[in-house]
């Protein structure tokens, strides 16, 4: 079965800190929203191929509303900018999920570590853990205090929450914080990659750490745009595709007429048979099976996972 | 009626803008029979008048330039399809049929059904159609070439898609003669309520009933694209009502468009013997020739969008809720984009033409269309050394489509050679 997918309506949009807005979404047809557990996230399908994941930070018992916190990411491809600048109360938006890769496991005590907007999935965890009577503490870091969202929500937990903006306290003292951990403690961390790496270091070999990573999808490919060789079997040509150059451009530059249209992997016009080599598929058309098979590729965007491709051109 | 373009600073509803840009005003009726029969000189006048013009006859904006047409097609947030992609504004008047879930919709509603259709018409699925389509093309074209002279439209362009596509869909044999008239209704339906519209709609209730019946699950053959769509209703990704509507989309958009495209390609290639010689010499050029013909003589000439907010297009301030007519066929001949745009060149780099649209509403069946064009032209390229028109093609006026009702040609059979 397919995971839930439905049209939601934006009920509220509130600025909760410098650079962060909270969205409240309801089901467009007024029916209850799919249920979820702390740690879950949803996809917002923003159009133009933009799909962004956001953790749910409200109350799982409230089936009438999802709450999300969205940080403006100036380096992003436009997903967060769209949410900040354009999306308005009353707008309808496609939602997929929820799904959960960050499940809250049972433990007698917890330590939570949040960096910036990474606090969002921890909020419902903390609410549940606190209601269940377990011991817990939260170490919450951010750039500056005004940039840190949901401090008001955390206010009621008193000194179990340590708010540590970097401009006043420097880097988080993870080592000191983790000294409180006992043998049964679980550590939940969410935030930027350097923080999570430091947290992994600090936890060492002990299996107590659970993290969720924010990997901005748009940057995944950046370090894979290397050079590779393309052999055109029919024409008997061997070409070198440089970084920042597409297979299509290379083939066209060699004077081989090939049909192409959208040049962004969405129309399928430039699909080409692959005789040897493993394509690095970057189109939006091929199914998972077809990708795995690797016998065909869209040469306007897709590249090579190895050093050489042989194409039926 | 066709006086030169005049310039005014204030056509249309007055919109508070930063700098009032003078907007050319033209009084052409782009849906008149005279315009439709000979569009290119009128396109040129409109294109050269400015990036965006005001068509006073209907009180609408229009653009005939590649850059602005692409911008409007791409920016679906500012240029909406949900108010209809024809002249009628669905917010103000009742559409003649239930709006299309694909064509006449915006995200997020559009996104879900579009994704389903992208999967239905996946490249693997379209590849699977090739063998059957090629066999039909070989047989049909083989017979016609033996005859020496035939009508490229009546004997080939109208026959081939009407045989292969309904079969691929799994439509019942009976009643297929309704498909072309329904396409005529759909595409004339995007224009004003002129004579073309009323003629097309003359038998509308009966044809619509056949169409609606044909979209039902029990009337579609197993293994066809129609059942593929219905299978998505079982997964819950679409409702049964949506499945029927998506089958209807294939019926409205999948027949006439390819009939016109193949007819236009054959007429254009017959009129350019030098270009045909290259295709005959190297039949691998057939698919490039088909693509170039779509640029050169675009089957879908126009679509409308409606602004959702005040927007600048080519320096012209357009207010919210206004209709703009996008001339795809004219954008495909914009000299700002194309070298020698009025020349058919089968080895031209055609990427960027908007004959299939672009952006989120780009034709979802474009690979099926390319497959049909490729197999027909390939079959002909192998057999015919020369094509030549025996009479001028007869235009078939339609409010949206450009093409011919007849294009008689003579073929010179090639010396037998290996396939």
From TrEMBL, chain A:
<protein>
    <submittedName>
        <fullName>Ferredoxin</fullName>
    </submittedName>
</protein>
<dbReference type="GO" id="GO:0016491">
    <property type="term" value="F:oxidoreductase activity"/>
</dbReference>
<dbReference type="InterPro" id="IPR017938">
    <property type="entry name" value="Riboflavin_synthase-like_b-brl"/>
</dbReference>
<feature type="domain" description="2Fe-2S ferredoxin-type">
    <location>
        <begin position="228"/>
        <end position="313"/>
    </location>
</feature>
<dbReference type="Pfam" id="PF00111">
    <property type="entry name" value="Fer2"/>
</dbReference>
<dbReference type="InterPro" id="IPR006058">
    <property type="entry name" value="2Fe2S_fd_BS"/>
</dbReference>
<dbReference type="InterPro" id="IPR001041">
    <property type="entry name" value="2Fe-2S_ferredoxin-type"/>
</dbReference>
<keyword id="KW-0408">Iron</keyword>
<dbReference type="InterPro" id="IPR017927">
    <property type="entry name" value="FAD-bd_FR_type"/>
</dbReference>
<feature type="domain" description="FAD-binding FR-type">
    <location>
        <begin position="3"/>
        <end position="105"/>
    </location>
</feature>
<keyword id="KW-0479">Metal-binding</keyword>
<dbReference type="InterPro" id="IPR036010">
    <property type="entry name" value="2Fe-2S_ferredoxin-like_sf"/>
</dbReference>
<dbReference type="InterPro" id="IPR012675">
    <property type="entry name" value="Beta-grasp_dom_sf"/>
</dbReference>
<keyword id="KW-0411">Iron-sulfur</keyword>
<keyword id="KW-0001">2Fe-2S</keyword>
<dbReference type="InterPro" id="IPR050415">
    <property type="entry name" value="MRET"/>
</dbReference>
<keyword id="KW-0285">Flavoprotein</keyword>
<dbReference type="GO" id="GO:0051537">
    <property type="term" value="F:2 iron, 2 sulfur cluster binding"/>
</dbReference>
<keyword id="KW-0560">Oxidoreductase</keyword>
<dbReference type="GO" id="GO:0046872">
    <property type="term" value="F:metal ion binding"/>
</dbReference>
<dbReference type="InterPro" id="IPR039261">
    <property type="entry name" value="FNR_nucleotide-bd"/>
</dbReference>
Automatic annotation (TrEMBL), chain B:
<dbReference type="GO" id="GO:0005506">
    <property type="term" value="F:iron ion binding"/>
</dbReference>
<keyword id="KW-0408">Iron</keyword>
<dbReference type="GO" id="GO:0004497">
    <property type="term" value="F:monooxygenase activity"/>
</dbReference>
<dbReference type="InterPro" id="IPR002397">
    <property type="entry name" value="Cyt_P450_B"/>
</dbReference>
<dbReference type="InterPro" id="IPR001128">
    <property type="entry name" value="Cyt_P450"/>
</dbReference>
<keyword id="KW-0503">Monooxygenase</keyword>
<comment type="similarity">
    <text>Belongs to the cytochrome P450 family.</text>
</comment>
<dbReference type="InterPro" id="IPR017972">
    <property type="entry name" value="Cyt_P450_CS"/>
</dbReference>
<keyword id="KW-0349">Heme</keyword>
<dbReference type="GO" id="GO:0016705">
    <property type="term" value="F:oxidoreductase activity, acting on paired donors, with incorporation or reduction of molecular oxygen"/>
</dbReference>
<keyword id="KW-0560">Oxidoreductase</keyword>
<dbReference type="InterPro" id="IPR036396">
    <property type="entry name" value="Cyt_P450_sf"/>
</dbReference>
<dbReference type="GO" id="GO:0020037">
    <property type="term" value="F:heme binding"/>
</dbReference>
<protein>
    <submittedName>
        <fullName>Cytochrome P450</fullName>
    </submittedName>
</protein>
<feature type="compositionally biased region" description="Pro residues">
    <location>
        <begin position="13"/>
        <end position="23"/>
    </location>
</feature>
<feature type="region of interest" description="Disordered">
    <location>
        <begin position="1"/>
        <end position="23"/>
    </location>
</feature>
<dbReference type="Pfam" id="PF00067">
    <property type="entry name" value="p450"/>
</dbReference>
<keyword id="KW-0479">Metal-binding</keyword>
